[in-house]
Amino acid sequence: MQTNRRKKITAAFAGLVLGLAWVVSAPTASATGSKPAAATATGNHCTISVDTKAVRCFATITESIAHATGGRVTDAPADVLAAVTDPDVTARINGGGPGALAVLGIQYYLANYGSYSLAVNGPDVGCDLPVDPPEYYVAPLPDFTSTGGINWNNNIRSFQAYSGCYQLMFDDSACTAAIYGWAGSAADLGAANDRTECIFWS
């Protein structure tokens, strides 16, 4: 795994993360991570960068995907389900390339990729295997209630990962109680619905 692109993160993530039938080392010195900054626009289709911590919100998922991809994909369908299931859109989101932003994953407010969305992006390299240790994280998730939006903590019910990534979800912002993953997508999180406050990608 490439370590030259990783950054130190807070000691709050020291130790081991235990979950399901596996153990994953916490990102004590290597994962690129983000604690959300203030939103810069209103809307319920939002983006957050694991590199810059910048967040933006838009009225449509079309705009959100355009921003998350650095303008590489500007014509995703405005219908949320159509955007996530369109194979051409998926291929282009995964396209990446030198200097491009990599979309790590898109989280959805409802099961079956419905309603509002939260896209997370990172460096153009995306993810590589193995999944342990993780390469990127966001914790806690953005809270836009002060601007009339969504608190994404405990409000995720489905997701799709991109750019070669798998996703691991935790029900606490200290990332110590794994509840779902590693997985590339989930149309319904089942018992893990409405519990996520931290996400790893690798």
From TrEMBL:
It comes from the Bacteria. Residues 1-31 form the signal peptide. This is Peptidase inhibitor family I36. It comes from Saccharothrix xinjiangensis. Keywords: Signal.
